[in-house]
Prior knowledge:
Helix 1 crosses helix 2. Residues 153-179 have low confidence and may be disordered. The chain is globular. A three-stranded mixed β-sheet has the order 1-3-2. A hairpin with a 4-residue loop joins strand 4 (93-94) and strand 5 (99-100). The chain is 26% helix and 26% strand. It has helices spanning 2-21, 69-87, 102-109, 130-138, and strands at residues 29-33, 40-50, 53-61, 93-94, 99-100, 113-118, 122-128, 183-186, 193-196, 203-204, 209-210, 212-213.
Amino acid sequence: MLKSMQEVLEEGFEILNKVYFNGELPPIVISIMSSPRTNGHFTINKEWRVEDERFNEINISAEHMDRPIENIMGTLMHEMVHYYCQINGISDVSQNGRYHNKKFKEEAEKRGLIISQGQYIGWSKTEPGEAFKNVLKEHGIKKPIDINRDGIIDMMVLPGNGGGDGETDKNKMQPKKPRCSTRKYKCLSCGNSFRATKDINVMCMDCNEVFIKAEK
Length: 216
């Protein structure tokens, strides 16, 4: 089932590379893996080995595949811009890659994206522009299947990603009552909030802002 979506992403990379980068971006591994807190990411290191060659990776979040194809391809282009900047020595991010500066905004907007600023993450909010959407239509880029990873993430205990002192029942996989005090996190843009048993970094997927820990 993932194969058809994988093929569209790889085809999309080839088309966008030719249209917006003159075909200059080297081959890259495009993956669809769990990444619930972001729409996608680019690995600055060559994490993949294929026989004797090594490759960078662009991951598209499995939890956010239910967006329109234009937005998925916008995420792909967003990460392609990071790839382009790395190859060309353009410093487009800081704070361990979280904060996107105006150089990123400039390069992304040259390639059909609409970039707006988000608190703490800089010029990172990404929307596909009309010209970008037209390129996708002209080349027949469509969503082949309605597919998404709908796993529910529990903010209190997240298996495999740290759960503080909260434990999970091995059979039911339901969080038990934490044995320690909790912290309250709040999105300053929309007001969404939750509690966690440890200090963590979490993005609000409603408005793409970082949750801020409330003062005691």
